[in-house]
Amino acid sequence: MPQQKKSINPQFENSFMYHAPKEGQPEKYEVSREKMKELAYLIDDLCPNSREKSVAMTNLETAIFWANASIPRN
Question: Is there a domain that residue 60 lies in?
Fold first, then answer.
């Protein structure tokens, strides 16, 4: 069965392409990573080892990923 040609989705095109850093963006990545790392240390210091702490750390990693992805995508 032949595959139908689908229309181009601009969001997919943007989400799944390489975005080379532009002027000023690497500095933004550094600042966001440093602040998230500070928060990671705070969580590690304040929170007892637990499932909840692990989930908080995982979500912090997710947050830095998406925060940094937003810089070149938008």
Answer: yes
